Amino acid sequence: MAQRTHLPARSGFTLVELMVVIAIIAVLIGLLLPAINKVREAAMATESANNLHQLGVALYSASQTAGSMGTLPPSYGTSQSGAPGDNSLFYNLLPHVEQVGLFQDIAAGTAKPVFVKTYFAPADLTNSRAEALTSYASNNLLFPGGAVGGTTAVTKATTGKRLPFDFAPAGTSNVVVMMERAAKAQYTTSLLVSSLSVATSALDADPDASETQFTAVLAAAALAPISKVAAPISKTTTVSTTHAWYTGQITLRASNVSPPFETKPSTASDTMPQAFTAGGLQVLMGDGSVRLVSSNVSGATWITVTNPQTTTPPPRDW
Predict the structure, then answer these.
(1) pTM for the predicted model, two decimal places
(2) pLDDT tens digits, residue range 53-63?
């Protein structure tokens, strides 16, 4: 009787089976990642919307404090209800966003401005928790004072608009009060001047000179002996701006461009609001509601909804 040969039991996977399993896992990951990113983006948008809502509550609370007489704080200056001095809107709102201690310590000179969660949009790629920055800006027509995007001159004010009286006839629900804006941005500026050869030589030696250095070179050249008058020269420089919540650079003026805000989260603008997600720009309205603005909104519509004195109802694209 012939003996039966017993083959050893096979253990583990073959190389082909292992590659099939890996391929299946890769496909599943590829299918899940977009969904995970969408959920993450939605969560960040929700947190930013909550911050804007909290800022709306804080604005109303500030307008009702003693001495305010129903007026909103200015973008930059001395608020009737805030600490004396040249303070930003966000500084005067600190007591109304559960930051009374920080407000008092800064006023007493015993603390420096720090990161405040309510002023931070999670999807703002330019903002970090290591700095005292803000991812939001106020409507210049409601909060006078401060430096409007792309400028360096800072103006001061004492009060903002009154709630709800200065929102007529538009109504508080039809007026944008605050909006998302990148905490850090860059803009380019060009200067065309007639200069002396000494200034031209200095600029050629340092083509990356800042605008301040450029101006200083020209000032020095004006005092030097005139040896040769050069042709007008153009100097283009990139200026970086940081929007700290305790300074005056927290207000924007509406512009008639379409769309009226930057739609690429990776491109930070200093003169325009910033959409942090593909869904659009989130804004705070005068009645405390938060609205998502589509990139299909025209510049003309944006000007209408940012003007508290407009007599025109919001257009259809709003």
Answers:
(1) 0.73
(2) 999 999 999 88
